């Protein structure tokens, strides 16, 4: 085996975008022979990746790239209400092209944010957000508050590389200097790693966060909230106020439960208000590698981070109407272009089923559930592996993910360029 | 290959760098570069595209020395969906759709600048980590040539070096960083203050010792100013000073001028840093007379004004403690971002009202600065977009400067107490078109060190704006203040960029690709080891992945020392 | 028996995505139904038993496994099984209610 080691590879699985991965490359076979530094999620992604040549499929049958492009262009030309969805595992170069395509066609555009941190975006738009980059957590944070998220499972190196373990400028003691608090409805793996675990009744995060804000303003609780005794909440508020630099991280426990954006908003408001006493920041735990990039690209090109409709010729923002689940559940899309995501697997059945009833084009390196029932599936290359591209970390820092394998398949950027050209002709 | 020739003939040309003040002249451009007519062959003249500019004013393309349009500006866009509902742009003729009033989307930003006759824009502030993002947005900002200023005033590598008296290492770091980020100039914002903010504090005096580093704002300013000169960067240190927005800001700014120690410098949005305490009732009043006097004593310094435009604005700066203070003062939503090792920023939407005593005082300060600083070559027109107002309101400012009757009308509508505390009513100066061409073209280009911009002499880039005098200020606008808004140079009859017509009658006609100006200053390679260690110790991503190696459309401008 | 259902990521679910969504590994990972140990005892359920889960929006099958969960709560990894049970109402936000709705979980008649 002819192995070469590539260092400082960027893993694109989750919003951490760890850029210190080492990969052993079998150059002759064009395969990944070994992975170091990655967490279980990144390792599984890289070790299982097949960069070999593969053909697109039309209605499940293999076909040539040229034919697939023509068929995709045909679907797009016929569509009156195209939904372009996904974006979060594509590089920003491809995302920019896809938004441009949507603009040209008057499509509806949405990203996986809508089923992930869209509500956090809505919260930011309502109440603002006091945030920081991950290096500030490394250098300064002496208190970590994980609310409704499970980093041990979802962002495998978050604790070790970014938040709990690192020794930074003002945190030379590393773990020993930090206090880790987890708030969740069940004792997760992350809860077990914490110094303090607050188990809350499912669906009461809003009330508890609101109670903390109340305590911060001098209010006295008269009883437990969300199953948490008032002394525990007072004590927590006291800790939050008196830390040197607090960092909160939040996830689906807030965005996916009743209240959604209102839950996130309550946390963001609490964090903002804590800055009257100390310095405190919050970072949403963005799940996909480049969903933050999708936010950024959408915003700078259309003005809005997700749920954008262009059918009137200008961008209109409509969470709840132009978001993908709603577009599909309400049967308002007559065709779909799915970019590097798998709504077939991750959408509620009512929406995922409708996806099977309309012509869909899927761009995904892997044969996802959506790809299975797609009219056209392009098994595109993967940025950071066999094509290069820019991605944005959960704290909005851009990172360039260079390819380290030879590309045997077109990238999504190339496919989109060709499809746009053909659809225009 | 056949050359491409464009002529702009018969117009009244305003080209201050070359001393042309309204004379009727032809401007010829071959393959994007201005040439003397005598240089062209008969065949080229005959085959040329010609713009008949008779009866029109002809100026170089506008140069905006200070605006926040790319990178962190995106946080401002995301924060304010209402701003994007307030004004939309429909796609048309191959051009992109867009949205946004105070924070337009990237394509829309480019089209609006071009329609106004502007062809070069400088992004006023990017953190090193955010540079790649700013460049991506540049990639979606067609037509315009662009450059980016890189933040250094709260950079902990530098603060470390200054505390240890290792100025030379810090200098090499600045050079390395400018190249690594594709930056064009050295920027500092509230030096030391944003770092103190990470402890909940701020700096107030030039000689305050920082909370966490044994250095002072004065030392930081002196170091950065000296470094810009030592490296020979075309543009000097571009400084947003201390105490912005506070009554003591004017005095601080005057004191701060000495901190440059005679090195070149540019003071940005001077208006925001030019107040004194009002005599009656507290609050802000203009300190412009004192500032104008002080500037006379510091010929090494230039300024852009940052004029207030009444109505909505979005504040976005790397002056993090200021932004937090604005949030507490106005209760408007605040988006703050601490950036590891590189400073901190904030975004807060705001509204300036002519009836408000402070708002009126701020507006007056900007106007007084324009009128009291004698030498237009040291003044640049700006609104610190979008902090004091949107860039497409520059024509309103131009009208105010050139028409004292309109100015008086505006003054009459302001909070009377603020007017009484000022000297503005007594200032009758009117800018000539020549002087407007200086403050919107020739001066910014000169101060930026962009020798091919801001003028129409042979060798200049073929960027031209042609204005029809009878079509000024007639276009409607998406602003609630339009009843009181009069404008000059708002609509270009033609905008030419690199010898191609990109806009006609105030509508963008086509997209071209602009260039991004970058630098490659010399540095001692031994600094790289230090930077690598710094990354390992204090950053959350690797040194090797940090430099931007894939920049498209870049043009390196040389540093001369 | 009624339970409050939540869904989310697990290591096996994440790995399974890359092994392949048609693989047994993935299918097993995403059809695991974690339940409180005492709740399982009360329903005569043992690890690996097939269960039927029903929500107002759909039905699914999975295999029970005891986990550190409060009583009355069940957890299914994100994926097609959890999504067979989720509704499409996003409350005007775009986000369906993936966590915190009520389901019925009973031992399946068929146990193989």
CATH topology of the largest domain in chain A: Rossmann fold
Oligomer: heterotrimer
Looking at the overall shape, the CATH architecture of chain B is: Alpha-Beta Barrel
Secondary structure tally, helices of chain B: 18
The count of DSSP E runs of length 2 or more, i.e. the number of strands of chain B, is 26
Whole-number tally of structural domains of chain A: 3
The description of the largest β-sheet of chain A is: 9 strands, mixed
Low-confidence stretches of chain B: none
Indicate the percent of residues in helices of chain B. 25-40%
CATH C-level class of chain B is: Alpha Beta
Distance between the termini of chain B: 38 Å
- Reported by name, the CATH topology of chain B is TIM Barrel
Question: From the helix content, strand content and strand pairing of chain B, which structural class follows?
Answer: alpha/beta
Quote the average pLDDT of chain B.
Answer: 97
Structural notes for this entry:
The complex is a heterotrimer of chains A (425), B (561) and C (112). By secondary structure, chain A is of the alpha/beta class. Chain A has helices at residues 40-47, 65-78, 92-105, 118-127, 134-140, 151-154, 158-163, 189-192, 205-216, 230-242, 252-255, 261-274, 291-302, 324-329, 343-346, 349-355, 369-372, 412-424; strands at residues 3-9, 21-26, 31-36, 57-58, 61-62, 82-86, 108-111, 128-132, 143-147, 179-184, 196-199, 245-250, 279-284, 308-309, 316-317, 335-339, 360-363, 376-378, 389-392, 398-401. Chain A folds into three domains: 3-44, no CATH class; 54-115 and 289-424, Rossmann fold, CATH 3.40.50.740; 118-284, Dimethylsulfoxide Reductase, domain 2. In chain A, helix 17 links the parallel strand 17 and strand 18 (376-378). The mean pLDDT of chain A is 97. Chain B has 561 residues and is of the alpha/beta class. Chain B has a single domain, classed as TIM Barrel. Helix content of chain B is 32%, strand content 23%. In chain B, helix 6 runs antiparallel to helix 7 and helix 7 (167-181) packs across helix 9. In chain B, 63% of the residues are buried. The model of chain B has no long low-confidence stretch (mean pLDDT 97). Chain C is an alpha/beta fold. Chain C has a six-stranded mixed beta barrel with strand order 1-5-2-4-3-6. In chain C, helix 1 packs antiparallel against helix 2 (24-30). The longest helix of chain C is centred in the N-terminal third of the chain and has 9 residues, at 11-19. Chain C is globular and about 40 Å long. At the A-B interface, helix 3, helix 4, strand 8, helix 5 and helix 13 of A face helix 2, helix 3, strand 7, strand 8 and helix 5 of B.
């Amino acid at each position: 085996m002819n192995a070469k080691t590539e260092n400082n590879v960027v893993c694109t699985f989750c919003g951490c975008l760890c850029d210190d991965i080492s990969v052993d490359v079998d150059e002759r076979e064009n395969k990944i022979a070994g992975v170091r530094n990655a967490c279980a999620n990144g390792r599984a992604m890289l070790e299982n990746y097949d960069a070999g040549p593969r053909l697109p499929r039309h209605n499940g049958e293999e076909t040539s790239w040229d034919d697939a492009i023509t068929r995709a262009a045909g679907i797009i030309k016929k569509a009156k209400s195209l939904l372009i969805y996904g974006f979060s595992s594509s590089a920003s170069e491809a995302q920019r092209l896809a938004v441009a395509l949507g603009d040209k066609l008057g499509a509806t555009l949405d990203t996986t944010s809508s089923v992930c941190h869209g509500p956090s975006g809505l919260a930011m738009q309502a109440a603002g957000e006091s945030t920081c980059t991950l290096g500030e957590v490394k250098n300064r944070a002496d208190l970590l508050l994980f609310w409704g998220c499970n980093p041990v499972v979802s962002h495998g190196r978050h604790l070790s590389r970014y938040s709990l373990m690192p020794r930074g400028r003002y945190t030379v003691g590393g773990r020993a200097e930090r206090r880790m608090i987890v708030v969740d409805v069940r004792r997760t793996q992350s809860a077990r790693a914490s110094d303090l675990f607050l188990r809350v009744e499912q669906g009461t995060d809003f009330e508890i966060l609101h109670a903390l804000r109340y305590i911060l303003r001098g209010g006295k609780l008269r009883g437990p909230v969300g199953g948490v005794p008032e002394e525990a909440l007072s004590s927590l508020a006291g800790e939050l106020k008196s830390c040197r630099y607090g960092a909160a991280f939040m996830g689906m426990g807030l965005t996916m439960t009743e209240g959604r954006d209102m839950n996130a908003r309550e946390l963001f408001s609490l964090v903002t208000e804590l800055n009257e006493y100390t310095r405190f920041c919050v970072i949403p735990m963005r799940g996909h590698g480049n969903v933050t990039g999708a936010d950024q690209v959408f915003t700078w090109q259309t003005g809005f981070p997700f749920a954008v409709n262009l059918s009137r010729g200008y961008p209109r923002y409509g969470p709840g109407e132009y978001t993908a689940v709603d577009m599909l559940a309400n049967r308002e899309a007559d065709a779909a272009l799915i970019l590097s995501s798998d709504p077939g697997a991750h959408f509620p059945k009512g929406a995922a089923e409708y996806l099977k009833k309309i012509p869909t084009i899927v761009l995904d390196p892997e044969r996802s559930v959506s790809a299975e029932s797609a009219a056209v599936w392009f098994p595109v290359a993967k940025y950071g592996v066999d094509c290069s591209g820019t991605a944005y970390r959960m704290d909005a820092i851009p990172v360039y993910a260079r390819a380290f394998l030879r590309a045997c398949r077109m990238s999504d950027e190339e496919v989109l360029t060709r499809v746009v050209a053909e659809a225009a002709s | 290959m056949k050359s491409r020739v464009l002529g702009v003939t018969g117009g009244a040309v305003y080209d201050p760098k070359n001393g042309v003040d309204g004379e009727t002249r032809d401007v010829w451009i071959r393959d994007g570069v201005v040439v003397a007519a005598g240089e062209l062959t008969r065949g080229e003249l005959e085959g040329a595209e010609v713009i008949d500019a008779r009866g029109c004013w002809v100026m170089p393309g506008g140069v905006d020395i200070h605006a926040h349009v790319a990178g962190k500006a995106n946080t401002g866009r995301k924060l304010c969906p209402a701003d994007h509902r307030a004004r939309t742009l429909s796609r048309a003729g191959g051009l992109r759709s867009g949205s946004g009033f105070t924070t337009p989307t990237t394509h829309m930003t480019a089209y609006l600048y071009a329609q106004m006759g502007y062809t070069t824009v400088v992004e006023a502030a990017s953190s090193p980590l955010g540079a790649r993002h700013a460049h991506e947005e540049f990639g979606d900002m067609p037509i315009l040539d662009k450059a980016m200023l890189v933040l250094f005033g709260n950079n902990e590598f530098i603060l470390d070096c200054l505390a240890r008296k290792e100025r030379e290492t810090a200098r090499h770091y600045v050079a390395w960083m400018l190249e690594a980020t594709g930056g064009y100039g050295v920027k500092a914002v509230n030096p030391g203050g944003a770092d103190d903010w990470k402890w909940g504090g701020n700096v107030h005096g030039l000689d305050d010792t920082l909370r966490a580093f044994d250095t002072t704002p004065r030392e930081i300013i002196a170091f950065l100013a000296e470094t810009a000169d030592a490296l020979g960067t075309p543009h000097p240190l571009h400084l947003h000073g201390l105490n912005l927005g506070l009554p003591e800001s004017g005095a601080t700014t005057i004191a701060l001028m000495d901190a440059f120690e005679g090195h070149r410098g540019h003071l940005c949005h001077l208006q925001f840093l030019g107040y004194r305490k009002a005599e009656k009732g507290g609050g802000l009043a203009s300190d412009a007379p004192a500032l104008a006097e002080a500037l006379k004593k510091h010929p090494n310094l230039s300024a852009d004004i940052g004029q207030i435009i009444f109505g909505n604005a979005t504040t976005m700066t790397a002056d993090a403690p200021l932004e937090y203070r604005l949030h507490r003062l106005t209760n408007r939503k605040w988006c703050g971002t601490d950036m590891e090792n590189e400073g901190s920023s904030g975004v807060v939407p705001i509204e300036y009202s002519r009836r408000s005593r402070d708002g009126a005082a701020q507006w007056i300060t900007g106007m007084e600065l324009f009128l009291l600083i004698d030498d237009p070559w040291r003044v640049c027109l700006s609104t610190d977009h979008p902090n004091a107002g949107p860039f497409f309101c520059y024509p309103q400012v131009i009208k105010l400067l050139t028409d004292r009757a309109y100015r008086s009308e505006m003054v009459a509508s302001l909070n009377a107490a603020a007017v009484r505390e000022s000297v503005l009513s007594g200032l009758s100066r009117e800018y000539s078109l020549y002087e407007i061409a200086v403050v919107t073209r020739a001066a910014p280009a000169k101060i930026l060190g962009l020798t091919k911009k801001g003028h129409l002499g042979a060798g200049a880039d073929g960027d031209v704006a042609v204005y029809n005098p009878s079509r000024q200020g007639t276009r409607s606008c998406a602003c609630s203040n339009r009843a009181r808004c009069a404008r000059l140079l708002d609509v270009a009859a033609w905008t030419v960029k690199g010898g191609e017509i990109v806009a006609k009658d105030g509508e963008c006609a086509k997209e071209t690709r602009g260039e991004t100006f970058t630098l490659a200053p010399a540095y001692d390679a031994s600094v790289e080891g230090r930077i690598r260690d710094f990354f390992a110790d204090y950053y959350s991503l690797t040194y090797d992945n940090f430099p931007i190696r894939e920049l498209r459309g870049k043009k390196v401008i040389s540093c001369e020392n | 028996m009624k339970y409050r259902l939540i869904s989310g990521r697990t290591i096996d679910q994440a790995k399974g995505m890359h092994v392949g969504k048609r693989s047994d590994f993935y299918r097993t990972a995403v059809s695991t139904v974690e339940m409180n140990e005492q709740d399982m005892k009360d329903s005569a359920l043992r690890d690996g038993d097939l269960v039927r889960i029903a929500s107002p929006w759909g039905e699914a099958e999975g295999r029970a496994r005891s986990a550190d969960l409060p009583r009355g709560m069940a957890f299914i990894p994100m994926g097609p099984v959890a999504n067979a049970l989720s509704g499409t109402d996003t409350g005007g936000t775009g986000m369906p209610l993936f966590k915190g709705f009520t389901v019925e979980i009973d031992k399946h008649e068929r146990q193989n």
